[in-house]
Amino acid sequence: MPRALVALAGALALAGCGGTETVTVTERETTTESTTETETVTQTETAAGPAAGLPPAVAETHAALLEAAESGDYEALRPFLPDSGFSYTFGGEVQGGPIGYWQLVERQTDERPIEILARILRLPYTLSGGRYVWPFAYDKQEDELTAHERELLGDLANSYSGAGSGYLGWRAGIEPDGTWRFFIAGD
User: Fold this and answer.
1) What does the alpha-carbon distance between residue 155 and residue 51 come to, in Å, rounded to a whole number?
2) In a 10 Å sphere around its CB, with 0-12 CB exposed, 13-18 middle and 19+ buried, how is residue 122 labelled?
3) d(CA 132, CA 181)
4) What global pTM score does this model have?
5) Which residues lie below 8 Å from residue 137, measured CB to CB, with a gap of 6+?
């Protein structure tokens, strides 16, 4: 209730009791000027999730490769291997082709390429040289990674040579027409 009404009510109450009192009510309106300053900061952050923004042919191949890799069955990858121009090793051809090579890596090391393929295909991608490449770190130098990106990569963030040559871990690339072009590690 405004002060003027409270004072008037009090004066009337006193008058009703036979008493008198003079009440002076002064109302003041104060205007305070305020200034609001807004600073906008744009921060780009890499987020894991579905591969949004891919051309339909790339999205289809990506989804099918991810499903095949998650099955753990190398043979499920075979239908996606092109007849030529697929990179899987920096050495010469391996008996059994890409699948034979990945199985050899699995027997000789503690790496499971098919599990790594599924893992990197769940990460964000980058567009490099016209190809869609997983993981996004493919075209980044180690010192360009944000803390969030390092967290997304996990132990894959250890796949930098430290000599400025960039990411050397497992990576997969798909052409804009949906052709799977490589799944390879090293340099």
Assistant:
1) 21
2) middle
3) 10
4) 0.71
5) 126, 145, 149, 153, 156, 157, 159, 167, 169
pLDDT in tens, 62-79: 999 999 999 999 999 999
The string of DSSP letters for 133-157 reads EESGGGG--GGG--HHHHHHHGGGG
* Separation between Cα atoms, residue 60 and residue 177, nearest integer Å: 10
State the residue for tokens 């893992």: 119
Give the whole-angstrom CA distance, residue 171 versus residue 185: 6
3-state secondary structure of 166: coil
What is the pLDDT of the chain when averaged over all its residues? 80
**Are the CB atoms for 150 and 46 separated by under 8 Å?**
no
